[in-house]
Design goal:
This protein is mostly helical. It is built from eight helices and no strands. The chain is globular.
Amino acid sequence: MLKARIITFLMAMVPVVELRGAIPYGVIAGLSVPEAFVLAVLGNLAPIPFLVVFTRKVFEWLRTKSEGLDRMVRKLEAKADKNKEIVEKYEFFGLMLLVAIPLPGTGAWTGALVAAMMNMRLKRAMPAITVGVIVAGIIVTTLTYGAGALF
């Protein structure tokens, strides 16, 4: 069971997979739905402070290393710009919604990227991202196992 807990937590930290993949994995691996939910939420949130604080610095450094890395950084910045409008318009709720909707191109990593590109302070970004991750976890769990599985 320890292995399933660790993998569920780590899987939730991975971009794209995040808790959308970690919750079903955890349950399939033998964890209860609430335990998989909690581990996935915590795992999904673990890298967020570092992403919000250091993304711009890492991007600046990557730009100097090669043209390929510079292109990758520009693509990521364009993705952030595409999602920035909802956050600028609705602030806390915009960032929360961007993170909460469990669709491709959304999630905690995208929310952290947008927050970093907008020079948003961690103390302002983290609460919205946290609520968004919890809502996304509830949505994923409800769609996968039904509302009763959480309680």
